[in-house]
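Why do we care about 3D structure at all? Because function follows from shape, and shape follows, mostly, from sequence. That is the central idea of this module. The next example makes it concrete: a single protein chain, its amino acid sequence, and then its structure expressed as tokens.
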Amino acid sequence: MRRRRKTKILATLGPSSNTPERIRALFEAGADAFRINMSHTSHAGLADFHRIVRGLEEDVGRPIGILVDLQGPKIRLGELAGGVREVHKGDKVHLVRRMTADNPSDIPIPHAEVFAALQPGEALLIDDGKVRLRIESVTKESAEAVVETDGVLKDKKGVNLPDTVLPIPAMTPKDRSDLDAALHLGVDWIALSFVQRPDDVAELKKAVGSRAACLTKIEKPRAIEWLSEILDLSDALMVARGDLGVELPVQEVPGKQKYITRMARKAGKPVVVATQMLESMITAPVPTRAEVTDVANAVFDGADAVMLSAESAAGQFPVEAVSMMDSIAMTVEGDPLYLSIINSQRNAPEATTADAIMAAVHEVTNTIHARAIVCWTKSGSTALRASRERSDAPIIALTPTLEVSRRLSLAWGLHCIYTEDAQDLDDMVDRAARFAFLAGFAKPGERIVVTAGVPLRTPGATNMLRVAFVGPQKERANSE
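And the structure:
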């Protein structure tokens, strides 16, 4: 099944999409990979989703990526006296390190690390920022704060600390248990939540090893400050605009989204834009015009993938939401301005053989109007370099490693095919043309550009460019 767009769609699975029939419908509507949110999924549910997606993958003959999203450390209020408390701007409040508050004037936060890290002048946000406090003084057991916004406090609501680096590990015991379950099943991507510093990503990478790729969710201001170092350690990034929009002024989020997207593109690593993209389609069959524009802007920015959360996991119109996202992406990619905008964002190649080859592939493809770029890739690095160039021509990624083909399902423009390795250079070119023909990317007599690393089976050694003709019905290629 060939997609008619290059931007990928990541759809979250949940109660509205938990049957083989519904998951197949999501794939046929346009989903390229599936996200499983461990905040709402048991290990048994994870295993069921994994089984269904792998069965679908076998049926359709296309690699499908599975991303498991770890919950991460959640800071929440304890139990208030009476369960509810109304606060007003200017009120003085008393925060206590307890699970419950017997005194109606106390606000319980049962997390010692919060009081250990808080400093006077820092902000503390409650319930997705609906209530904002400013810390005036703090001890190991309590803190005094002033209320900056009117609101209502309720038991167990979430707490955000945008100005504070918390001395807590990136993964909780629950996360480690979920990670073990996910890696045992053989999922393709692990997403890490609430990253504050590069060490958080290093901790995940150490735990995962080579068993999966690691995606870092950028949802805290501190992570943006460390973005370059975090990006070096990550295999991909996600612009997680939910918590990012709580901890930053909402008007700053669009600029940060563009900055994160461009940094990831420059590094040649996939970047996913997520959260509230088609939020109204949780309950409505069509999105708002603003939501359509939001998705379109992410596509114009060259994001590798756009993500659906509750829209596909718990909404009333999950298949319609995927179909709408597919339609928006295809329409934008066909817009007369699209290529000029994408090309204006291209980065100069670094002084490496691999980058020079891929820049040449881009230029040759455009000059001769080649019908497709075919990348032979063992580790995925050749295909990712081709994806970074954002060529107008389709990119076929041929790999002998099934796990790599699944991981590449998040990368812009890649049509991934799992196949046995080439025997030699002639076989590589011959079969590249054959796959381009069989997949409908090129007709007999048309040209393709083939790139790979030589000697064969050398990961990361992109150093070869060949132009080939697709032969007549023999499905052979004569190298120019």
